[in-house]
Design goal:
12% strand, 4-stranded mixed beta sheet, flat, alpha+beta, Glutaredoxin, 49% helix
């Protein structure tokens, strides 16, 4: 039986979990969910109700970075785990905080009128230029 990955195609955390699983060439049963109608099985194994969730024969992994590490420990063909993991973690934290906020503000400027859409775009560009 294949591991089950509950995912949502537009969730950035689920995207990075899918990317690592793909790079590691691990077969999974991908179950794309509707955020408005979450599957009962997913909620049974992961009551927090967020994606990604990887269901394995011996347990459940509920965090995208943990799923990435699990996948790459199985097979790391590009040597991603050979990188400076402290530097990689710092970049991930920057992505998940400042960049994600700037991106959300840029995408939905009506929700964040404190700055202009261009200002939020400029904030995001700083991260992308790193």
């Amino acid at each position: 039986m294949l591991p089950i990955l509950y995912s949502y195609r537009r969730c950035p955390y689920a995207m990075r979990a899918r990317l690592a699983i793909y790079i590691a060439d691990i077969a999974v049963e991908l179950r794309e969910i509707s955020l408005r109608d979450k599957p009962t099985h997913m909620l049974q194994v992961s009551p927090k109700g967020t994606v990604p969730v990887l269901v394995l024969p011996n347990g459940v992994i509920e965090q995208s970075l943990d799923i990435m590490m699990w996948a790459l420990k199985q097979n790391d063909p590009h040597g991603w785990l050979n990188a400076d993991l402290n530097k990689a973690h710092a970049l991930i934290v920057e992505n998940d905080t400042n960049f994600k906020r700037a991106l959300d503000c840029y995408k939905y400027p009506e929700r964040y009128p404190q700055l202009s859409q261009i200002d939020y775009r400029s904030q995001g560009e700083i991260f992308l230029q790193q």
